[in-house]
Design goal:
Elements lengths: L15 E4 L11 E4 L13 E5 L3 H7 L5 E6 L6 E7 L6 E4 L10 E8 L3 H8 L10 E8 L3 H5 L5 E9 L13 H7 L6 E7 L7 E6 L4 E4 H8 L4 E4 L3 H13 L10 H5 L4
């Protein structure tokens, strides 16, 4: 086994330190070690580790709101040692002002979008001057352009997808059928991505759906002007990367001409 990256003090009694576990162990890679009456040495010799639920007595003894108890097996002479782990809270959002650089995951409220119709494109093809006004719609959206592209001035336009309050989406609001909402939460609707609850001065408190059906390209200069003097919500890691992954997955879907028949899987072990 590779050397463990966890740094232990000589004693962990009534002591809290940050920790990092190698991903190969299958545990969260961030958190806190919260106290132990045991002395842990030679962490590089750890043979195994597993999670246990701490008992009420454990919690009372430690005096911290630990949520997991980890058992390390270091072999002889240390044998099994116990360490209590306190979960790290990962907030979904931050509030940033207009001095903060634009990033992927920023929520833009009341953004005006120019949406030309088929007749406008027809006039372009026919090289005729259109007498019809190009409609302008106001949306609430979230930035999908990569932060690095925005930061290094590699793009002149920003990709926005609209967001909708869950309460406004009738397909997910049947009180007698929770299945659609659960499948939405699980990410089974590829054209949508569910965001945790948020609330602003203009957005009501609700869960929000990012809608990949509509993808808008907005001038970066115009967008920055829209954000002047305003606070905005920012989706934070790892939820931002989860959104980006969903966006990519929506476009990378491949339809097969001949799929594996569902019945063959149903009857496989019969």
């Amino acid at each position: 086994m590779e050397e463990n990256t966890m740094a232990f003090p000589t004693t962990l009694q009534n002591y809290t330190v940050p920790f990092h576990l190698p991903p190969v162990l299958g545990f969260p890679d961030q958190g806190k070690l919260a106290g132990s009456t045991e002395v842990l040495r030679h962490a590089e010799n750890m043979r195994s580790a597993k999670f246990l639920e701490p008992s009420a007595a454990d919690r009372e003894q430690m005096g911290v709101s630990t949520t997991k108890k980890m058992v390390f097996n270091f072999g002889k002479p240390q044998k099994k040692q116990f360490v209590f782990i306190e979960d790290v809270v990962y907030p979904w959002y931050d509030d940033v002002d207009d001095t903060a650089p634009l990033e992927q995951g920023d929520i833009v409220e009341n953004c005006q979008i120019i949406i030309p119709g088929a007749e406008h494109y027809r006039d372009i093809i026919n090289e005729t001057k259109s007498s019809k006004e190009v409609p302008v719609e106001t949306i609430n959206g979230i930035v999908l352009s990569q932060s690095c592209d925005i930061r290094h001035v590699k793009v002149d336009s920003i990709i926005l997808c609209p967001i909708w309050a869950l309460a406004s989406c009738g397909a997910f609001n049947n009180p007698k059928d929770t299945r659609p909402r659960e499948e939405l939460r699980q990410g089974k609707y590829y054209a949508y991505h569910l965001l945790n609850k948020l609330e602003t001065s203009t957005l009501p408190s609700d869960f929000y759906l990012v809608d990949f059906h509509f993808i808008y390209s907005v001038s970066k200069v115009f967008l920055m002007e829209t954000l002047k003097g305003k606070m905005r919500k920012r989706l934070l890691p790892p939820y931002r990367e989860h959104l980006s992954q969903s966006f990519a997955r929506y476009f990378m879907r491949v339809g097969l001409p001949i799929d594996i028949e569902k019945e063959k899987m149903v009857d496989y072990l019969r």
